[in-house]
Specification:
It contains 9 helices and 23 strands. With about 450 residues, it is of the alpha+beta class. The strands form 5 sheets. It has a 9-stranded mixed β-sheet with strand order 15-16-18-17-19-20-21-22-23, sandwiched between helices.
Length: about 450
């Protein structure tokens, strides 16, 4: 709940209807407060724009008619309107909301995503997200764009980026395809890369990992499966009580759409995900044998354990009704990938940060152990000091290298040839401390001792 403090009297006043508010911005004249919050108070619901004038009994929802999340606020210099970014699928729209009106109108529809947007007098300064970052300026409605910086060379060949759509059951699903710039028509191996969240979406943003994999001959598809933002509140709620089967169906039907176009090789499918994407990787390797290999990053094996030890627990009530220990254990167990570990057949690499509090590394260890105990080829790498979102450059580079190496190592795997259970491995005991590169299960160490 937001509160306004009168610095003269020391008294506070609660802002009505401001529970779960974020992106709080006063108008330049200090009379109207703008903020974003879930329109119905549930953390998974669409985030709308509310305006509150001091003395009013309630804040006004001014963006509900657009049925899109409001992601950023910028007041106009004259305090007459609020401009905001709204995800429209894989791209963003800039909309304007007049203080005296009850709805908004489109101000600017860039032909690319926006990594940063801010005021520059009546116009804008912004960073296009579809290329290595540079600062640009434009007029009030995006006209007369002008590049202001040249921090990155212009002669680097970037992947070709295409927005693609396909049918998954009754739904239309959109995704972002990264492909070689030359546009060769021969079928290529495909890496499916579902985003995290799951309340998020993939944009047509420059992605160094995707560029790295494309340079090695892969296609990369980032699907906006059910549960993603940018397609309306009903689509975002499409994964309530269904984190696994429905989203995976959307992802795999995206692969089928690219196979039907002759772009992807049906026998060379891979999957990599981080956070919720790691959860979906864990679900995939226990529910399909169409993948040659997978990489699960910062994933979740057991939703009951995740509820107990994650730093982001409460919002899961909206997906799974309530606590797993107060009447909903069966639902949590049914949606947990580790429940189906005996079905796993896909070689899987697990990557985790040592200091991850969002998806703690015990989740990775659980899934790694479950697959090993069922004879599935697997390895795990634990990076020292890293939180949920990696920050150390050498680890970011190492992670990308390992993803590519794991996929290349399994690019000639054939589904009808059984994979022998791996030999016992030595778990390195040099504890994670500054100077240690990583902690891993090492194939090179399999002859040195037992599995501890």
């Amino acid at each position: 709940m937001l509160q306004v403090l009168d610095v003269g009297s020391g008294k506070t006043q609660e802002v009505p209807g401001s529970s779960l508010a974020s992106d709080v911005e006063w108008a330049p004249d200090g009379r109207v407060l703008a903020f974003v919050r879930p329109f119905d108070g549930r953390a998974i619901s669409r985030a709308d724009l509310f305006l509150w004038t001091q003395g009013e009994a309630a804040a006004r929802n001014v963006s509900s008619a657009l049925d899109r999340d409001v992601e950023a606020l910028r007041w106009s210099p004259d305090a007459a309107a609020v401009d905001a970014q709204l995800p429209e699928g894989a791209r963003s729209t800039v909309a304007r909301f007049l203080v005296g009106a009850g709805s908004g109108e489109t101000l600017w529809k860039p032909a690319h995503g926006l990594a940063l947007l801010d005021r520059a007098g009546p116009g804008w300064v912004y960073v296009p997200s579809d290329r290595p970052h540079e600062l640009w300026s434009a007029g009030p409605q995006g006209q007369s764009p002008r590049r202001l910086t040249r921090l990155n060379p212009d002669d680097i060949e970037l992947p070709r980026v295409e927005l693609v759509r396909w049918r998954s059951g009754e739904r239309e699903v959109e995704g972002v395809l990264f492909a070689p710039a030359g546009g060769e028509s021969r079928p290529r191996p495909l890496v499916l890369h579902p985003h995290g969240g799951p309340r998020d979406h993939a944009g047509d943003d420059f992605d160094p990992l995707a560029a790295y994999l494309v340079a090695q001959g892969f296609l990369v598809l980032k699907p906006n499966f059910r549960g993603s933002t940018g397609y309306g509140d009903a689509f975002t709620r499409g994964n309530v009580e269904d984190w696994g089967a429905g989203p995976l169906a959307d992802v795999m039907s995206g692969a089928d759409a690219l196979i039907a176009r002759g772009l992807a090789d049906p026998n060379r499918l891979f999957l990599y995900g981080w956070s919720y994407g790691g959860y979906l990787a864990n679900w995939a390797v226990t529910h399909t044998d169409r993948l040659r290999a997978a990489v699960s990053g910062a994933g979740v094996a057991d939703l009951r354990m995740q509820y107990s030890i994650s730093d982001a627990r409460r919002w899961r009530f909206d997906y799974f009704r309530g606590s797993p220990f107060a009447g909903h254990e069966e639902l949590y167990a049914r949606q947990s990938p580790v429940t189906y570990a005996r079905q796993a057949r896909v070689p899987t690499l697990f990557l985790h940060g040592e200091k991850d509090e969002r998806c703690p590394p015990s989740q990775g260890f659980m899934m790694y152990r479950a697959l090993r105990d069922n004879g599935v080829e697997t390895e795990m790498v634990l990076y020292p000091r890293e939180p949920h979102v990696f920050v150390e450059p050498q680890h970011l580079i190492d992670r990308a290298r390992r993803v590519g190496e794991w996929f290349r190592a399994h690019d000639r795997w054939v589904a009808d040839i059984p994979v022998d259970p791996p030999a016992l491995v030595q778990l390195y005991h040099e504890r994670l401390k500054p100077g240690a590169d990583f902690w891993r299960t090492s194939p090179a160490a399999r002859s040195k001792g037992g599995d501890r």
